[in-house]
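Section 5.1 Outputs to date
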Amino acid sequence: MRVAHRRTTAVRRLTAVTLGLLALTGCGGPDDGPDDRQAATAKATATASVTSAAPAPSPDGTAPSTAPSASAPSASAAGANAARWAGTKQFVQIDDARTAGGRTYLSVRPAEKKPHPRFEAWVIVPGEGPYTEVSMTEDAQVLLSVPLGDAKHPAAYAQDEFVGRLTARPSSDRALLGFDLSFDGQGRVTRVQSLYTP
């Protein structure tokens, strides 16, 4: 009887130890259980999204790059120039002009003017660099002289007539024309006057 009792006790203890070992084996790392796998996946996804949203390091690796991507709009040099010219007078070349939405737009570039050595006229020294598009106010004054206008002395013309006369000339001729422009406080042209050139 004592032997049978000892065997039963031993079997119970062995069973308890086996069940304990099985329970401990079931408590694995974060990749073992389905709930733990989901939590690990969610954490990895969150880390990846944060990493992709973070600024990229600069080429020399010293600081994050804040430069916009190629598809992102950026402030143009044209807008910067128009703002810089606000409230000033500029002497420019006008490469092109157009009308859209009831507004006249001019493609301009700074230039220089010098008195003609033999006539009461001007010599235009072309500028360099890109042209900047600026808009004219609706009531902007336009004064034209020869060769764009009909006379040596400046006379008033409508904006649409000015656009037509300018764009009718070849680009090579436009490079020889010079204009005094006046800008308002918002960088819009309020006055255009072409210079007399023989």
